[in-house]
Amino acid sequence: MNKGNDISVVKQQYATANNLCTRMSIHDKYSTNKTGFGNWIVSNYRIEKGMKVLELGCGIGDMWKNRESLIRACSKLVLSDFSEGMLAIAKENVGNYDNVEYKVVDIQEIPYEDEIFDVVIANMMLYHVPDIYRGLAEVRRVLKKGGSFYCATYGEHGITEYLSKILSAYGVEDKLNKNFTLQNGYAILSRSFLKVEKLEYIDSLEVTNVDDIVEYIYSLSSMVALSNVPKHRIKEPLMQNLTDGVLNIPKEYGMFIAS
Q: Does position 103 have pLDDT exceeding 60, yes or no?
């Protein structure tokens, strides 16, 4: 993989929140597990009063929205991302608190001293890191002894695999970024952390408006083969896969807790 090209694509994808919001809306609207992936992730956090917390790749800050009691439990909460555009929206979503800092941070060069955070979080972003082992070494460096590292990710047999099969006639291949998944994440984390636990979130999509999934598809950087294909052409094979008016799409998500 050309790391330079990959990171430039990522920066383009996340320069604004448009593509991310398109993808999030699909999950909000059609997920069969009504807990919500974000709520489930947060339910697994063990953040006690007075802890210092760093989130890497916080995106639009949605995980902390309307969680004032959790925010106030932290003596310090750093919400960071490598996109200034994302951070600006995160600040709008989460708001101003005396104990909250918004900062542009690259996980490969975390600008904090050793053993300062009780908790470090990096959800749905480790697969984008050019040198993941360097990033994890930095996480371990800033994490206190006995601290916890939470990182959510996807599996290799979910939405992208399913849609790639349906759209294979248009040159679409399964180009899911597999640098850090539910399948290989345990082995990767075990090189940097002594204890690693894997948790799986059971869910799927039941899509009743195919137009929504078409917009989702065009928001994905992995679907570049479709850039010159009209949207109505993509809709046809999706419609052929409906069962009683519903497009059933598998999802594979979960998280690791390392310490």
A: yes
